[in-house]
Amino acid sequence: MSCCLFEYCRVQELKVVREFLFQSQQNNNSSADKKGENELVWDDSNWGSWDNPEAKEVGSGETTGVEEDTAAVSAPWLQDCVVSLSPCSDLMVVAKGSKAVFLSARWQTDDGGREGMTLAVSWSGTLSINEGESVSNVICIPLASQKRSSTGRPDWTCIVVGFSSGYVRFYTESGVLLLAQLLNEDPVLRLKCRTYEIPRHPGVTEQHEELSILYPAALVTIDGFSLFQSLRACRNQVARAAAAGSEVVQPPPLAYKKWGLQDMDAIVDHSSVGIMTLCVFDQMRNASILGGFHASVKGSLPAMSQYITVGGGPYTGFYYAIEGSSQPLLSHVALAVASKLTSALFTAASGWLGWKKQNEEEPTQKQKPKVEPATPLAVRFGLPDSRRHGESICLSPCNTLAGVTDDFGRVMLLDVGRGIAIRMWKGYRDAQLGWVQVSEGRGESSPSAPLPRRHAQFLVIYAPRRGILEVWGTQQGPRVGAFTVGKHCRLLYAGYRLMGVNSVTSQGWQLHTQQVCLFDPATGALRTVTVPFHLALSDKKSERAKDLHLLKRLTTLLKKVEGNYLESEAQRVLLDIKHPAIKKQALESLLANKNAPVSCLTNITRLLLANPEAVDEALLQLCSSQLKLLQLYTDIQQLHSTVEASTDAHTKPVREELARVSLILQRYTELTSGSRPSVSFAQDSPDASLPVRGFLSQMECEGEEIRVVPGPDADWTQLGSFLFWGCLIGESPLQKVCDTLQETGISPQHLLSLLLSVWLHREKEVLKKPKAVRHLHTLLTALSSMKGAVESSWDMQCVSPWWQQVRSACVQSHSAAAALLAAIVAHRAAKDNITSLAETKVTHTHTDSEWEAVSLELEQWAVCVRQLEDVLALQTLLCVAPLKGTPGGATPHCSVKALLEGGRGGIADSVAKWVFRQDLAPERLKDMLKCGCCIKECVFCVPPELLVSVCQRFPDSLSPDLLFAHCCWEYVVQWNKYPEEGRYLCCAVEHLKRVSSPHIQLGISSMMWNTFLVKRFSAAAFLMEKVGKAPKDRLCRRDVGMGDGATTSFLGSCVALLQILMEADSGIEEVTPPELCVEEVWGGAEGPASIVELALEQRGIHYPLVQHHCLLATLLHTAMTFNLRVKPLSLFDSKGKSAFFRELVSIQLMPSGDMDPGLVSLRQEFLLTVLTGWVKTQSEAGMAPASTRLDLDSGDETWPSLCLDLGTLLQVNPDILRRHLVCELYNHGLDPRAEQVMLEVEDKDVLGSQLLVLTGQRLSYSLLHTQTQTKPAMELLARLPPTLCTWLKAMDPSELGCLSVPLSQTSRLVSRLIEILPENHGQYSLALHLLEAVEVLQGED
């Protein structure tokens, strides 16, 4: 046992703390860095960092070596802050300037499941109230609870903050201001607290609680009892005011004493030692020195409060304030003392600021509080050193010693009572000090040692320049510990505990406080120093220290030495150790060593057991128990080294069962053995021999019985392999091993658990050894016959606990094949066992009840075996390797317990996940379920016979509707994870289409819409409404969460889903709801409701509202497909807009009647734009080469009919759409399609006028705008009537989508024009002239 430094807490969010405190300085860093590039600066960061051979690295594991130095580059920021840690380590305050951050304790669980305490930010803000003031010092005082049930934990913690303006303010942990008081107009230098400590000796003066506040020339002390009561009252008042919503009542000011410290040039730190009483001799000595021969001395001894200050001129000053009396001690100084003591009264500060709410603003002008004058207090004496200036003082816990640091890099130890320096350390510049007080443990002192227990004090010195933390024994003790730490840490020493504790309330309390904490800002770790008491004793007088040295030597031997030399040296060291507890610890270290052989451990343990000096009962018990375990380990090892042939009986029924499941076992073995290779360590392999220390750690001996200690599965399997694997593979005498284990008294239940663990965890090796099944049968039979396995008094009408243990292990295992083999073997062994028990009771039990008992137990086994066969078939299917490039992760593993706990949909959910990993198309899945194994494997790239086999085993759980519903849900869940994969959502909709039940379709559709789609759908609609067009990729990713291409596919799937929803709602009344059944052996499934069960619970929808959303989805999909400019929501009136994105089951006020003509005009313009975009797509697809054509949604032939349907819903005249479509088709040279659509146009006159203009544009291009005009064309142009010639010249051929149209098509178009135009039409004659001109041109060509 040596001095150690361990981490007990970690501070989180340090980066957030730093950014908040230094936010105002971040903008100035760049300019300061540029300014300092050309300056030569003395770098003293590594001053004094010489190597220390005695220092040792702290094994915290976070940052060491170069990593710690690199991490600490950003650490010096903490040196500019004021830091305070509560002694209970549950609150830390970090302040800089006017800002502060409070960090409170929280319990956090890491990845390994271990809980640990962390400090996280609970409050941050600005504490300064007056302009220009800043935080100068902070202290956290935990206040004790006044409840009788308290065990020593604080009720709450008060944060006391001193400011540069002289104010002292008190806050709660949440930053609420309790009270504030101006005690002096100078900056607050230091805040220190003294709390109650139980006197260790009757003659020690009981010290009262006190808060002391140091100013440059004054010292203010506040009585702890009155402060405690005031803070409690203020906190209660604030809580009541907050609950009632009223203003806070102003509390009375604090009572305090104020001393004016004189005769020192500068004061930087102080310590309030407390009340001290002089003895009679010291009183008479002082009187004779100060008053001379005629001095008079009072009979009563005066009580004085002692204060020690450090600074300059003198270096250390000692002040004494007489308590409770104003009479002088000596006649020579009567007047002086009287004048001082009469004004040292408890005063009420008139400088109370008053309370205010946080939302209340301060008045622009406020009267400055009155500050009471200080009572002068002269220095009694000091340590004069004109060149030395003190920097800090740290008082020891027992108030007898104090450590002082100065600017010369010295640490001085003061005797407080005598006022002298008794020790000095050199080379500790900027040192930080703390104290550790250790009590002597029970059993460490000699029996004759008087009570109370002894205490030892150790001085902790942190030297930041050297990056070392040292622990020194006081007063003249050696250095007992040294640790290499970071160079930017902070040593946090409170020096006090809980406030509000007294001699009555502290009885039976365990105060959970830390004495010294080292805070490393580079890692956020809080570490504390633990020092054993024996380090304060001298080596010559302490046998324990010698024993600990021997223990340390043994530890070194175990790390470096092996073989016979290790045995001899370990024996010598163990015999030399005298203390029984340390000898026991040494033996435990030896037994836990990995290098010590079994013979060595056995010989040493036997030697210690036979040693006549060993009189400690605990040591003898340890030796005896460990010797038994070592003997068992040796016996098992020897048995495994011998080979005997074992006979197996009653295996014929087992062979029949194995033959029945041999095909599926073979297929499972092929799939699992072909898995990808993985990396494993040799020592972690089950084949690795179990070291003796592992055996001893998992076994314990109590009296005559040996018990197995439960542990992790890996250790359990390794121990089971050590005991039984040789028997399972036929290399060890099975019966002898069982007899040896039975003689040791190990519980048969533990042995059964070990056997099943090794069997179930080593499945791959078991499947490669067919004979292992016979050996398992023999082992189970042997273990069942042990005493305590199957009780002879077992009621055969109940389930046997022994065989129930086997079934529990099998149904929980994820090794499907091994669990099935174990169940088959155990079923046979249980049947034989039940038969033998029934034969012994045949004379006492009636035959009918006997057969009932047998069927009850065997029925459990029949169900278990059937369940395991089903699980094996399902697991075999899941082991089929997925296609390359498909997500899905590792192969899932299932068990009977997992399927039962997964509810009725667990099986279908597992198969649906497999379908997704195989990327199986919905149509192909449907064909596989219909045709079964008739389809060849190469068609689907997966073995369909496995899927059919599983579906046959689960006819109810894997019915087509349930399977398609779960596949649909799995695909939509995967799409929600990867929204860019639009095909996942398309597949989900396709699976949903193949569900035959409209009830299931309706429920699944509603759940998909509400859970996954409506949020993204509304985001897409609002985004398009905002930008007024089809949004680009960046905007889609920002608002919808996917790219523009995926958004288009998503909107198309929304249209399909809403159409399915409407169709299902229409057919729901014609079909009865389906009844969900489950297989008989899986009837005990309990767990979450399946997707289908949830779907059947969904409420009906409001059909018009769904149709309304489907219309919007179609508009959005159309706009995205053709990249159109439109504001989709603007195409609806106010009723239509308010109905969008509501619950589909709600009844909404829908648009009705005729629409506003302006809206109808916008809708018509949109639909015409859609038709134009579709015709352009068709034209471009016709001109592109066949090899480069893309199968786009925009090229779908259904768009024209869709636009006409939309026109009907949007109250747009369909004939206008048809005429526009005809014109666009002719405009782009698609005359055959235009002729088909022309047949459906009703208003032929208007269409004829539109087509006449288009014909004129074509003819104008042929006659006037071609680059190679022919002579006949020019002659024809000259022969044309002037009216026609002028009309052709007025035409603009640039409006044509396709310029080079054959004359035959134009001639046919003119013929159509003459057919549809009536003869009395105003432009009929113009059409005849056009026909004549086209025929002439066509004849000349």
Automatic annotation (TrEMBL):
- According to its record, what are the GO cellular component terms? cytoplasm
Q: For the region Disordered, what residue ranges are annotated?
A: 28-66
Location within or outside the cell: Cytoplasm
What's the domain of life for this entry? Answer: Eukaryota
Keyword set includes Cytoplasm: yes
The terms under GO molecular function for this entry are: GTPase activator activity
**One Pfam short name:** RAB3GAP2_N
InterPro entries named among the record's database cross-references: Rab3GAP2, RAB3GAP2_C, RAB3GAP_N
For this UniProt record, the keywords arranged alphabetically read as follows: Cytoplasm, GTPase activation
Where the record annotates domain Rab3-GAP regulatory subunit N-terminal, the positions are 77-492
The Rab3GAP regulatory subunit C-terminal domain is annotated at 751-930, 945-1318
The UniProt family comment states:
Belongs to the Rab3-GAP regulatory subunit family.
Q: What is the protein name given in its UniProt record?
A: RAB3 GTPase activating protein subunit 2 (non-catalytic)
